[in-house]
Amino acid sequence: MPTLPSTIIAPSFGEQVCNWLSEVHLQFEVKANRAFTTHIEIKNSNGRSLNILLTDLENWQKAGSFENWQIEINDLLNQRTKGEQWVVIWEDYWVKKPYIVKSRLSAMLGISQKIAARLTQVRRIDQETAFQFLEKNHLNGSVSSKTRYGLFLPKRYFRVLKKDFEHNIESDEMLVAVATFSAPRVFAREDGPFRSFELLRFASLLGTNVSGGLDKLLTAFVREKEPDDIMTYADREWSEGAGYERLGFERISETQPMPFYMSVNEMSRTTTSNPDKIVVYNAGSIKFVKTFKLSD
Predict the structure, then answer these.
(1) 142-183, pLDDT tens digit by residue?
(2) Which of 12, 82, 117, 158 is 20 to 30 A from residue 221's alpha carbon, by CA?
(3) Is 25 helix (H, G, I), strand (E, B) or coil?
(4) Cβ-count burial 200-232 (b if 16+ within 10 Å, e if not)
(5) Stronger pLDDT, 137 or 191, i.e. the higher one
(6) 167, 266: one domain
């Protein structure tokens, strides 16, 4: 009698993350399994811990709600006030954009390819170049923008790359980071018009950590556009925006978690209400603004 094929059960979301951590030889511990989240503590290369909160969609459908999510987020924010690093990873992001999630975690854990921004050259790039880069390297993809800059690593500095870092060795340069900006919003004031811009997107090439990259891109933008201020938002699922504060941005306000409407089968989310989709929430955001004096 022929043997029936055994049923193959795909690893759960949490198991997939744990398998990846093992593959990259990181020490970790599953600290808690709650109603719809799993807390994993990872020991990074500098001896500090990175805590990730995995949000499983199947369990979210059973026990998820805005109230329960608010409890989880408030607990996470409280842990951050104690100096702990915490990030939130929803299952749909892991499924749809695993390489970007892994790249961001690797950068935080200190195991990604490091590139010093001082080795790069900055210049304006066109809309298509920015779009292609951000779609591949930013968790939220690209958005319409007015001004775009890129950081390029010249071929003579390819020598700083690890031997196993995949890149086109025949190319004269490599685009390693991109920042995009909005058109100015102009406000009338007694002392003249006030021009405010928004930093819309910033991303580094997958698998890299471009040290000083955002600072160099901002400097190029400020030199050309002479803004009165630049505003941007920090995604609280990943941080409290300490990197922006180091660059002179001031924390202005916070937004509460926003609802999204999720198609579980397609693992896609939208802001448009739909009764056939489940409601999920982000962790909110923080608005930052950097103001420039005329003397600058």
Answers:
(1) 999 999 999 999 999 999 999 999 999 899 999 999 999 999
(2) 158
(3) coil
(4) bbbbbbbbbbbebbbebbbebbeeeeebbbbbb
(5) 137
(6) yes
